[in-house]
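Instructor's aside before we start: the two examples that follow are unrelated to each other. I chose them only because their records fit on one page, so don't look for a connection. First example below.
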Amino acid sequence: MHSVKQRIIQTLLKSEHKDGDRLPSVRAIMSAFNAASGTVQAALRELGDQGLICKIQGKGCFWGSAPLASTSPEIRLSTMERLDANFERDLERGFFKLNAPLPQGKELSIRYDVSQNTLRKFLTQKVELGILVKGGRSYRFRQKENAFQKDFLSELVFVTRCNSWGGFTAESERELDFLRFVYKTAGNNKYKLILLGYNDDTATLIDRSGKKCRLQDYPNAVGVIISTLLVQKFKPLLENFSSAKIPVAVWWEHPEENVPSYFLKKENWIFFNSTFGKKPGIELGRFLKSKGFSEVNYFSPYHNSSWSVDRMTGMEESGLTVHPFVDSQYASPWDFKEIARKKVEKHSVEIHARNLEKEKLASLMERAFQENLISKDIPWVCVNDEIASLFLELIEDSKSLAQHMAETVRNIMLVAFDNSAESYLLRLPSYDFNTEALVEHIFYYISNPDAFYGKKKIHHILGNVVEK
């Protein structure tokens, strides 16, 4: 039996076409095959590697080595297509509050640069599709009656990773933010959270008292929220809830193509992603292009990870020229900590790991100098705030960096991903993954599983670069 990727390839190869014809869009192929974006992209890459198709930035994929002259101009969207794309983008980035009326028509017509008549036609289409409802002169997203105005507490199962006895310690600011927003939103919407842990080593569910449990132990639960952050054995975690008849919303912290296809076929399951994939890189690229930059240097000592590669690819797809200064030996900061644990005492692990990372960054910076790519017109994009912080430490430490290099780098714009508290301390522009909007969308789905999403199974939440 062919994989989904191979079925896509074979179908495209058998379709009638001639050199220069434009292929269907990625979204159209995803819909036709019920496939993930990563699977479609992998199929197109394979055809491209074989020289059967070519990709033109901003225009799509074409049969042959180059598109025909008549197809090469940029494809223009109709007014309604452009309006729909901008509306969808605003939804993904949390501009709309899902349990509140949309902004007034005049404000939206100005925002989208369309007439109020065109806007009304567009909103009427959304009503007919069951996405919006109209009440008086205002529109809002459709939701079940009294979905957010309950006078009783509904039970909601909330699952995170845990240790062997059910204990939990947050490992990052983003994880803490996620917990805080889940607790806050649950309280505001009168949900009683049932806190469960999942232990990766035993692949079991554990309640906060350390007792093993199952979903069946909570027959009054009306929904499930699952965090996969730092969960390595995510498939057994999901399988604990495979028999659920209630809505299941998953915070997916892994590459999109790794979502088990079985759960994508279940009507009551949905996945939300904000950090993986190319969209964060695309959004950061848009930000830099709006500032007048056309090329960047990209620094990552974690390029053995899909998230590092995707962030770079996203910037390239935004139209930036990206000069990669990356190292593919390691996949995350935890790799450096594992090395440190084998070499130093426990209390020195953090310091030793940071020193190892600084050594790696100093070598990447030296490469940038050797390639004459040091200029105030070329910003440095760091894979996360920690790397930007280490760069600044290197610059201030004259023993770690040649003086002429330090002086030159001080005048270069640094940008990063994460928007951590440290980025505020350093006054560093950084991409925020919009955890608040992520949680809002999760709760909207739990309360209104059939109101908006239809058959779309993986939802991307867009963030933005926060300037300090």
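Example two begins here.
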Amino acid sequence: MSDNLKQRTAKGFAWGLLNQGSTQLLNFAFGIVLARQLTRADYGIVGVLTVFTLVAGNLQACGFTQGLCNMEKPEHKDYNSVFWFNISMSACLYVLLFLCAPLIADFFGSPELVAVSRLVFLTLPISAVSTIAGAYMFKNMMVRENTIVGAIALLCSGTVGITLAFLDYNYWALAWQQVVYSTIVTISRYCLCPFRPSVHFTFDTVRRLFPFSVKMMLTTVLNSLSQQILTVLFARHFPMATVGSYSQANKWNTMASGMLQGTISQIAQPVMAEIRDDEERSLRVLRKMVRFTAFFSFPAMFGLALVAEEFILTTIGDEWLPCVDILRVLAIAGSTLPIYALLQNTAISRGRSDLYLWLNVVQIAVQIGIVEVLQNYPIEYMVIATSVFTLLFLFVWHAFTRKLTADYSLVFFLKDILPFALPAAFTMLITWWVTDCVFASLHFSFILIIRIVLAAVIYAAIMYCSKAEIMRECMRYVKQVKSAKHE
């Protein structure tokens, strides 16, 4: 990797990590307050609407962000063409969902969903206004600016949500939080992004990008359905409180895995697209990214599984204990999601949106089949089965990614992930055994702190003694940043 690309990638990763870190930290803080003030049923009511907003949002964006990123030098007319297409799509989708609100309420047997859904669905036209500004920032790796946008939006929306929750607006607090977030993101992006739409436009770029982008759109729609299929099925078969338990567990799991996954997604496609013509270099960069991701992802997610009970009790209280076992299973499977993101972005950067689409179709079809077979069993059985499948399907993704790179063999892949996955698992087992034997009588909040500190020390010691190159590179980069600040 050239020094220039390496520096831009490192800076992009650092800012991306800061972006995701600040995002998850704010979500963590606001989530604790809201979970203590609201009920599981409140989360269930708003949670069942997530599938509609995600799917409609993907339809509105149509995969053009990735399409524009793959263009070598997109011009203003290209961004402008997609901008007006997105605006048109979002207006049509909102009208459709507005009219379908009573049907949605009848489907879930919750009359209150009519008014709530019509408010939440406003996020679609609001977000559409800034979709292309976001695409411009993504293409140009404006990660620092995205960090600022996310922090401002979360602070404003979180404050509104907490205020309404304390005023006993119940689930309306969560609904308004989403609307305010979308509004602030839209305003902030246009303050920081140089793109400005013009009224003179054609849909030439839309037509040119459509074959690639429509596959991206279908894939992201299917992904959204896959991520929310359990929530939808639970809402049909279980009380809203049960749905809320799963939504809460999934929220914490997504926050943890999403920190690294979101960081990787912000830089992986632009970087891989830039070097896609150099097969040998692409393989080196991909392997280094996989190792770096595994170095952080496995200990973080296995650690969340380790402290799930103490974490839930300390943060949001014993009312949410039913979500502990679900969170543990989701966290173990979630350790692979950032690696999924890397392999998927490799396919996207090579223009293989068809591969991205069909692999996701297969994955989702199998997941739905598993859920249907186990629908009469408790939630935990469904979560365990789908999570095991998620872990195994990572190797299917690797098999197809191997064909897009300079022979990224299974042996290489295992060498890149197992030196971090196995020590992380060993660390958590030792930490659990020691704390369970020695500190079991302490308050759960103290056990939480002890387990986090002990696990971090053990894992760092193993990495240091094994002379992990990724750890050394991280330390060198931190030293370089400190030196640059003093100069």
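The first helix runs from residue 3 to 37.
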